[in-house]
Amino acid sequence: MDIYNALSLLGIVFFLAVAWLLSTDRKAVPVRTVVWGLVLQFAFATLVFLFPLGQKFFVWLNDAVMYVLDAASEGTRFLFGPLALEPGQTGSLGFILITQALPSIIFFAALMELLYFIGFLPYVVKRCSQIFSKLLRTSGAESLSVATNIFVGIESAITIRPFLEKMTASELCLVLTASFATVASSMLGFYVLVLREQLPNIAGHLVAASLLAAPAAIVMSKLIYPEKEKPETLGAAVEPVYEKAANPLDAIIRGATQGGKLIFGIAVMLVALISLVALVNKGLGSVHGYLLNNHGLDIPLKLETLLGYLFFPFALATGMPPMDAVYVGQLLGERLILTEVSAYQHLAQLVRLGLFEHPRSAVLASYALCGFAHVASVAIFVGGISLLAPAQTQKLTQVVWRALVAGTLATLMTASVAGVFYTRGSLLF
Questions:
Q1: Which string of DSSP letters, residue by residue, matches 72-85?
Q2: CA–CA dist 373, 391 (Å, integer)
Q3: DSSP structure class, residue 100
Q4: Are 149 and 179 in contact (CB under 8 A)?
Q5: Could you say which of 4, 17, 64, 253 is the most buried, measured as most Cβ atoms within 10 Å of its Cβ?
Q6: Are 204 and 62 in contact (CB under 8 A)?
Q7: Rounded to whole angstroms, how far apart are CA atoms 215 and 127?
Q8: Exposed/middle/buried for residue 392 (C-beta within 10 Å: 0-12, 13-18, 19+)
Q9: How many C-beta atoms lie closer than 10 Å to residue 283's C-beta?
């Protein structure tokens, strides 16, 4: 273990301490939940990063995702022609987000729906839910929501729809936290496409990040918003609510349609948010000009830069050199206001330009950014769940900002856990 592995270990303690300090009731924090949540993360990380069999499995998984993405690109190239050719390929026009990376969402959404139809994903989700309920003592409904979030996005709330109306504030906080801290499988393909040239094993890392994020979300949520009531489904086995497709073709059509809607939503959101941030930065630029011309103060004023200062100590705590933490802090700030889509694109640019001092920094950044912990998701998640349970709207608005903090801390903790086990000898690094 070198200095950066030790720093990652201290980072885990730091993130837990921050969550505890922000807790609504520090005396009510469930110690068992926190301890078992950490045990699950370390057990999984040990399997992936230290055991040869686990490493080989995730290398195989990485290759499998790449293989599937290559198949997905056939449909994209058929539809967009030269616009779909990635940089480096003959005839490529350069990187174009909407014609090269985003269409993979359609394919992965259809694939996930097909896996639901054949019963594979419902089985895996149910087993994960049972593990969370028994070991971490979370209620059946919130456990099921967290387990479902490993594979899908806001749709996970549908699987617990009958229980939403009677959920406690702590349960709702965990439902939201899991949504912020995890990523849908349909988005994973997009992240891989953006980063695979710079980080060849990125698919394996992002799968690992998705699995580590589930117990991390439970730990952070219960630290920040401990349960003080008695959940209706505490100790109960909850069956997921799922409207099964009529046949495989129906499943593919449903998934592809949802993927198309998701692409449209992402495109619209990026146009709006990037433009609004640019407007704010123009205003800050005017202030910078005034300070420089009238007072000789050359202070860089840019929203992403200012947020980068805020996130710098958190990036440093994941276990990376200070100069690298400056870049990653800015990426974390960018994710908060511009979504992880923009942040991952800029991460790829930083790696391409060779700006990171240590190779571990780019890998840990990919873990820290792997989640929907940004302002745009606040409206998406609260709005979506409110439609399913209108009576819970007030509770949702009360806990959502704490959930956003918990989700952010959860993604940072997954990066620290990966950082503890980072060694150059590992097959995945």
A1: HHHHHHHHHGGGGP
A2: 25
A3: I
A4: yes
A5: 4
A6: yes
A7: 14
A8: buried
A9: 11
Q: How confident is the model at residue 229 (pLDDT cuts 50, 70, 90)?
A: very high
Tokens of 22: 């922000």
Q: Give the pLDDT band (50/70/90) at residue 389.
A: confident
CA 314 → CA 8, 191, 299, 357, 415, distances in Å? 11, 22, 23, 18, 11
- Confirm whether 426 is domain-assigned: no
Element (H, E) at 137: none
What average pLDDT does range 230-245 have in this prediction? Answer: 82
- pLDDT of 427 higher than 60: no
> Residue 185 and residue 284: Cα distance in Å, rounded?
37
DSSP 8-class letter at 232? T
Q: CA Rg, the chain, in Å?
A: 21
* Distance from the first to the final alpha carbon of the chain: 15
| Interacting residues of 102 by C-beta distance below 8 A, sequence separation 6+ | 190, 263, 266, 267
Extract the tokens encoding 411: 């993604």
Can you give the pLDDT at residue 180?
A: 94
Name which of 241, 29, 228, 32 is nearest 145 in CA terms.
241
The verdict on residue 322 lying in a domain is yes
Three-class SS state of 322: helix
- Structure-token match 């924090």, residue found: 29
Q: Residue 308 sits in which domain range?
A: 3-421
Q: Which amino acid is at 419?
A: G
- CA-CA distance, 177 to 368, in Å (whole number)? 15
Helix, strand or coil, per DSSP, at residue 167? coil
Is residue 97 within a helix (H) or strand (E), and if so which, with residue range? none
Alpha-carbon 183 to chain mean position = 4
Structural contact between residues 192 and 370, judged by C-beta atoms closer than 8 angstroms = no
Q: Is 427 a domain residue?
A: no
Residue 30, CB-side half-sphere exposure with 13 Å CA sphere: 21
Largest pairwise CA distance in the chain: 70
Q: How far is CA 153 from the centre of its chain?
A: 10
| Rounded Cα distance, 391 and 20, in Å | 29
3-class state of residue 119 by DSSP:
coil
Query: What is the domain count for the chain?
Result: 1
The answer to whether position 429 is within a domain reads no
What digits encode the pLDDT tens for the residues 176-192? 999 999 987 777 877 88
